[in-house]
Amino acid sequence: MTETLDIQITKTTHSRLQETDFDNLPFGKIFSDHMFVADYADGEWKNFQVIPYGEIGLSPAISALHYGQAFFEGIKAYKHADGKVVIFRPDKNAERFNKSAERLCMPTLPEDIFLQSLAAVVDIDRDWVPTQDNHALYIRPFMFATDPFLGVQPSATYKYMVLTCPVGPYFSKTLRVKIETNFTRAAEGGMGFAKAAGNYASSMLPGKTAVDEGFDQLIWTDARDHAYIEEMGAANAMFVLDGKLVTPSTQSTILKGVTRDTVIKLAQEWGVPVEERRVSVAEIVEGAKNGKLTDAFGAGTAATIAPVGSISYNGEEYFLIDPKEREFSQKVLKTLNDIKYGVIPDTHGWNFPVGE
Ligand SMILES: *Cc1c(COP(=O)(O)O)cnc(C)c1O
Predict the structure, then answer these.
(1) Max CA distance (Å), the chain
(2) Going by C-beta distance under 8 Å and a sequence separation of 6 or more, which residues neighbour residue 98?
(3) To test ligand 1's pocket by mutation, which of 93, 180, 255, 260 has the most ligand atoms within 8 angstroms of CB?
(4) Which domains does the chain have, with CATH numbers?
(5) How sure is the predictor about 170, in pLDDT bands with cuts at 50, 70 and 90?
């Protein structure tokens, strides 16, 4: 097995736990007491530390700021009724972390360092893992380039860090979405499959434009023809069409979501036919018109299962059935939650216990 990582721990002298209102948690704004930091230099990872959450000093010339050598992950930890804390499928995120690193010409991080860093921050702040329904501790591992050098080339030094935030549900309502036919998120050969910071920078203007038009979210289409569905905001797009679970296959333009993978595995176990393939805008619009589209949702760690209420395309809005009446997404959401919160046995080995 793996060696225990030598992590130097410095505890905070002033916990903010008591002054935090757990009934009012805006997403990603409240940070727990500690964070994890490690440095990459001379070709290796070193200086593994857990320190109080706070500002860090950096040169204004670091290449992450100028050329965007930066990427992240998003994971959640859940508290069970008996006080046990688990992290959901972090091994999948470790794998994706390194795919992002390779695409951005950044160093990979051994899976056991990744997993032990998460366990260390979650364990030290386990009292920050919320206990309310649908709440969790959001875990944000990330890496960025730290060479103070304005030349366009891969940095030789990097920082790897992990922050955690107690969070409530991400979306509280059914989403009004539009199919985007102007902007593009990713093209073949680009970095759509990586959780690269730059992908989110380029999505902000399209996202804001959609919100200004009265939508909650947009559905990305392919860069060439805008005729095939790719993703829904920063979540994977999933549909039930004609009784089958249909979702775009993960070529290089699509981020391979852990939630997407989990939903597919559950569907397969339930005997629901699954199709991972090119999904045309035309068939989704047609299904919305003729009633064969019985379910549509975004799947992601932050949003979990976010039901789509209506889809707009070329100025026409198509309404779907009431989310409460959708058999598949209701069942998948309940099963996912029951596994994560330890209500039913975790027969897949998806929950990684912390501090045992
Ligand atoms: C993070 C993310 C997802 C969802 O991935 P999960 O592993 O399920 O959280 C989907 N699409 C994009 C673009 C993302 O950034």
Answers:
(1) 62
(2) 108, 109, 111
(3) 255
(4) 8-168 (3.30.470.10), 175-340 (3.20.10.10)
(5) confident
